[in-house]
Amino acid sequence: MQTEERSNAHERKAAAVSFPYARMAEKRYGMDRLDLQFRWGRFGIRVLRCHLASFPPGHLIPMHKHSEFEFHFIPKGKGTVVIDGTVYELREGMFYLTGPDVMHEQQSDEDDPMHELCLHCEIVPLAGAAPDGWGDELEAREAEECVRLLQTMPSYPVPDRYQAMPGFLEAYRTWENQGTGFYTTMKQIIIQILLRSSRVFAQPDEAARFPVRDMNGHRFRLATQYIEDNADRPIALEEVAERVQVSPRQLQRIFRSEGRTTFREWVENARMQRIGSELLQSDLSVEEIALRYGFGNPNYLYPVFKNKFGMTPSAYRRKHKRGAR
Fold first, then answer.
1. CB under 8 Å to 210, separation ≥6 — which residues?
2. Measured between alpha carbons, how far is residue 252 from residues 32, 35, 231, 240 in Å?
3. 47: helix, coil or strand?
4. φ, ψ of residue 2 in degrees (nearest 5)
5. What is the CA radius of gyration of the chain?
6. Which of 14, 30, 229, 284 could form a disulfide with 288 if both were Cys (CB 3.0 to 4.6 A apart)?
7. Partner residues linked to 119 by β-bridges
8. Is 70 exceeded by the pLDDT of residue 36?
C-alpha cells in the first residue's frame, strides 16, 4: 500500500512539473466563488470567473457570446475556435479575447484534449471616479489605455508574448494561501493579466510616459529632510552628500540653486529652529539644550542664536512663554 501511495505521489509530482497548471484542477472553481471587485483608475473591475477548464478530445462548446470580457489562454493541448464565422487553430501558448458580444464556438482536437485558462470579467466606467494625487492620475491613464486596447483588440488567437498566463497560477496559489494582503495581491494579479494581454496589440509609442524627476530638486528635498531628521546633532556636508549620492561640491551647488543659500546656513537655520522649539516646549536649561544640540561649549550657542532671532536664548524663552499665557 505504501509503495502504491509513493508511486501515485511520484506521478502527481511528475505531472505537476510537466503541466504546472494541473494543480488548479484540484479545486477547479474555488476562485470563482470569490466576489472579487475593485476600482482601477476610473473603472470598476468585477471578476466573474477565473479557472482552468479541461475539454476531452472532440468536445464542442456551441456558438455563444457574453456581454463582458472573456480571456481564453491555452496552456496545453490544441483545438479550434470559430469567431464571427472564421475558424482559427488553437495551440499551447496562445490566447484570444472574446470581448462583449463576440460570437464564438470552441472545440478541442479529436485526438488531443485541450485545457483553457479562463478569465471572465466585467469592466465598467465609474461615474465621478476622479483620482487625486500620489500618482493616481497616471494609474487612471494606464487603466484607460488598457481598456481602450481591450475594446479594440482583434478577436483572433495570438501568442501570449507578454506572459499573462502564469498570472492564473499565481492567483490560484494566492487563493490557496489567503495570507496577509490576499485581496490586494489578487487585485494586482488580475490587473497584470489585463495589462499583459493588452500589450500584444499596443504600439510602442502608445505607452504612457512615466513622470521624470527633477533630480536636483529631488536631492535637495532628500538632503533637507535628512538635515531636519538629524538637526539635534552636528551634521557635515560630506555626510549628507553621501546620503543623497552626490559629491560635496555638487551638493553645495544644489543648495545654492534650489535653496538660495549655502549648506551651512541651511543646517544652522534648522538647528536654531529646533532649539527655539525646545526652549518653549521643555524646561531644560539653556546649557542643557545647547549640549543636546551639539554645542560642546554652551557659550558658542549665544552669538549664533542671537544672530538668528535677534535676542539671547533666555530672552527668547521669556518673551514667547509670556506671550503664550
1. 138
2. 59, 56, 18, 11
3. strand
4. -65, -35
5. 32
6. 284
7. 50, 71
8. yes
Q: Which residue, among 179, 160, 194, has the nearest Cα to 68 in the 3D structure? A: 194
For 58, phi then psi, to 5°, come to: 75, 10
Helix (H, G, I), strand (E, B) or coil at 257: helix
244 to 32, 249, 265, 267: CA distances (angstroms) = 48, 13, 18, 16
DSSP code, position 33:
G
DSSP labels, 183-237 = HHHHHHHHHHHHHHHHGGG--GGGSPPPP---HHHHHHHHHHHHHHHTTTS---H
- Pairing verdict, β 86-90 and 94-98: unpaired
SS (H, E, C) 265-286: HHHHHHHHHHHHHHHHHCCCCH
Q: Which domains, from first to last, does the chain contain?
A: 19-202 (2.60.120.10), 215-323 (1.10.10.60)
Q: pLDDT per residue over 145-178, tens digit each?
A: 999 999 999 889 999 999 999 999 999 999 999 9
Order of strands across the sheet that contains 158-159: 37-40, 43-55, 114-125, 69-76, 94-98, 158-159
* Max Cα distance, the chain (Å): 96
CA distance 121 to 33: 13
Looking at residue 132, its pLDDT comes to 60
Q: What DSSP state is assigned to residue 155? A: S
